[in-house]
Design goal:
The complex is a heterodimer of chains A (about 190) and B (about 450).
Chain A (H helix, E strand, L loop, with lengths): L10 H5 L6 H6 L20 H29 L2 H27 L1 E4 L3 E6 L4 E7 L3 E7 L2 H5 L2 E8 L6 E7 H18 L4
Antiparallel strand pairs in A: 1-2, 2-3, 4-5, 5-6
Chain B lengths: L15 H5 L1 H17 L7 H19 L2 E4 L3 E6 L5 E6 L3 E8 L1 H5 L2 E8 L6 E8 H20 L18 E5 L2 H11 L1 H16 L1 H30 L3 E5 L2 E6 L4 E6 L4 E8 L8 E8 L17 E8 H11 L14 H4 L8 E4 L3 E6 L4 E7 L5 E6 L1 H5 L2 E7 L7 E7 H24 L1
Antiparallel strand pairs in B: 1-2, 2-3, 4-5, 4-10, 5-6, 7-8, 8-9, 9-10, 11-12, 11-16, 12-13, 14-15, 15-16, 17-18, 18-19
Classes of the chains: A alpha+beta (about 190), B alpha+beta (about 450).
Chain lengths: ~190, ~450
């Protein structure tokens, strides 16, 4: 059981730490009931390389579009193209920020019997996947992820709705997680 | 049972290609119609005959190359001419066994045996078709083996003689034809409405309606009629009974199905009350078993469909049935906070949830009220989700995922603190339930 009950450190409060509204939620939380309590330091996060990758994914196209528009503006001499170029830059900047926040929302925690995964800024999600329920685990790495030495670990249960993946793990960490999950899954496997 | 080929390999019934190509057989007749009516010489029908020959040949070849046998605790099927497939189905993982007899199959006195397996890659084992008099003993043998394999893995060599099935069963409910028709019409009242509108329209201005029908309306009408018919056909005189080897479901008008769901394989139970049924106090009880929604090789009728235990019945009967399936179901459900009105003004009254030590229950739907129960030992994962609107109102939802096809329990729009608590409690209770189940 968590020792932080009654304060604003419930799992959900942690999900939305940046929010002002969470204090009033935690205030009404009945003591002794939040069992999914995970200390903030227990949460593990994806590699910072993922942030770089995601930022490049939005930054580079935005920059290219802006440059192309600016060049078009210079050639045609119309101010509208410059306006569009500026818009592209602003959109890029907003996405840059959003990507940063989204990166910050990812986290996972290996507990005794289950794996917790949290993610999402707009839609904050926290999944609890018991090790015994895992059917298989796959590790994938796309070309860009590979270039950054990253991999995505995905957990599958018998339920189609289970949505448990952890992107942007360094390759050794991904392999370690996969092996440890597979081992725990085998030890605790439960029938359907 | 006869052993056709060496080492206990058996073939399917020789008439299988004919029945299997049921639609193709009908298509052949349609192809032949122009010849019969047009008085054409057979010479003109060469392409038709070529098509028929190919279909027949394909069917016969597929029958020739398919064989099956029961190994100790597996069912093995080998099939395929060019791409040889050897399929192994561990009987311990069987969730349910169906005996399906479509109209054509009944004519030829054969039946299809369908083993529903768990898991996302397992698929369904189909033996199409087996002689009618062999199918029931075969099913009982498979069920007995599945039971034996589950209880006692060390001695799987128990022969079919030693594990004779227990035949007594206890009938729980049968569905009458009148209520069934009424219920289908009432649930799909908009279909009836459109049909009536079409008929009225036909009286007022036949041209407009005819135009509508030609312009795609005909296809729509045909598909809805098929839908309604299929449902009626499937649920006609459906009888649910409880036997020692699981729940027995039998029914059907033209296509007969008999199904056995093994005990403890029910992933979720749903009680559905469509809007127009409620004044009559009717409900439908559905159970969900493991497996993915759409599978290759499954008939149309199985797509996304839950097993209706009783397609229609009084609410008290439904509740009684649910009680039998889940004796320790939660009795009291709690309502969502009032502020949910601002997010879901229509259904907020319908969103309740409750839990007991072994089961979680949720309700949803303003018009079509659905109550879902999920036994906690069947929980696959739990998800806590909070969207932007929910955050503003300090609400959150908890999803309870199961291995079933469609029935899930969702604690929608609860107070954020309550949702967090529920997530923790359900995680713990599910773990306990799973452990208890493993030991038992």
């Amino acid at each position: 059981m968590s020792s932080t009950l009654g304060s604003s450190q419930g799992p959900i409060a942690q999900l939305g730490e940046r929010r002002a509204g969470s204090a009033k939620v935690a205030g009404s939380s009945p003591a002794g009931s939040i069992a999914v309590g995970v200390e903030p330091e227990e949460w593990q996060t994806p590699s910072r390389q993922l942030l770089t990758l995601r930022r490049l994914e939005v930054g580079v196209p935005a920059l290219l579009v802006a440059i192309a528009l600016a060049v078009a503006g210079a050639l045609s001499g119309s101010g509208v193209a410059y306006g569009f170029a500026a818009t592209a830059l602003i959109v890029g900047a907003l996405l840059w920020r959003f990507v940063g926040r989204r990166f910050g929302s990812w986290g996972y925690a290996e507990r005794e019997d289950d794996l917790l995964i949290r993610r999402g800024v707009m839609f904050a999600r926290l999944s609890v996947v018991p090790y015994g329920r895992m059917q298989f685990i796959d590790v994938t790495a796309g070309p860009l992820e590979r270039a950054f030495g990253l991999a995505t670990v995905r957990l599958h249960t018998a339920a189609a709705a289970t949505d448990a993946r952890i992107p942007g793990l360094e390759r050794e960490e991904a392999a370690r997680l996969r092996d440890s999950l597979a081992e725990l899954g085998e030890a605790q496997a439960a029938g359907l | 049972m006869s052993a056709g080929t060496p080492e206990g390999w058996r073939r399917l019934h020789p008439l299988s290609p004919v029945v299997r190509g049921g639609r193709a057989t009908i298509a052949i007749f349609i192809l032949l119609i122009p010849i019969a009516f047009g008085g054409d010489t057979l010479g003109h029908a060469t392409p038709q005959f070529a098509v028929i020959a190919v279909i027949v040949l394909a069917g016969v070849v597929s029958w020739l190359v398919t064989r099956w046998r029961i190994d100790d605790d597996d069912l093995r099927i080998e099939t395929g001419l060019l791409r040889r497939q050897s399929l192994r189905f561990p009987l311990a993982q069987v969730q349910a066994i169906d005996v399906v007899r479509p109209g054509l199959a009944r004519l030829f006195r054969v039946a299809e045996l369908r083993l529903r397996m768990a898991g996302s890659s397992g698929g369904t084992a189909r033996l199409a078709y087996v002689a009618e008099h062999e199918v029931e003993p075969l099913r009982d043998e498979l069920l007995a083996l599945a039971r034996g394999a589950r209880h006692d893995k060390a001695a799987p060599a128990a022969g079919p003689e030693s594990v004779r099935p227990l035949r007594e069963e206890h009938v729980l409910a049968t569905v009458g034809t009148g209520p069934l028709i009424a219920s289908i019409l009432l649930e799909n009242w908009w279909l009836v409405l459109i049909l009536v509108a079409l008929l009225v329209g036909l009286g007022i201005s036949p041209h407009t309606v005819a135009g509508l029908l030609v312009g795609g309306g005909f296809v729509w009408a045909l598909s809805t009629v098929t839908f309604v018919w299929r449902r009626f056909n499937q649920q006609y005189r459906l009888t649910v009974a409880e036997g020692p080897d699981g729940l027995h479901l039998r029914g059907g008008l033209v296509a007969l199905t008999a199904e056995v769901i093994r005990p403890g394989r029910v992933q979720a139970v749903r009680l559905v009350e469509p809007a127009l049924w409620r004044p009559l106090g009717w409900c439908r009880v559905e159970v969900d078993i493991a497996g993915r929604q759409r599978r290759k090789g499954e008939g149309e009728a199985q797509r996304g469909q839950l097993h209706a235990l009783i397609p229609v019945g009084t609410r008290s009967l439904g509740v009684e049935l649910v009680d039998r399936l889940l004796p320790d179901r939660p009795r009291e459900l709690s309502r969502p906070p009032r502020r949910v009105f601002w997010k879901s003004p229509f259904r907020y009254r319908a969103l309740n949830w409750g839990r007991s030590e072994t089961c979680v229950a949720t309700t949803s739907g303003r018009l079509r009220r659905v109550t879902s129960w999920v036994p906690l030992e069947k929980v696959q994962s739990l998800r806590h989700v909070q969207g932007p609107v929910q955050r503003r109102l300090s609400l959150a939802s908890v999803h309870v995922d199961t291995a079933g096809r469609a029935a899930h329990a969702t604690l929608r729009d609860r107070d954020a603190a309550e949702a967090a608590t529920a997530l923790g409690e359900l995680t713990d209770l599910a773990r306990t339930a799973r452990r208890r189940h493993e030991v038992a």
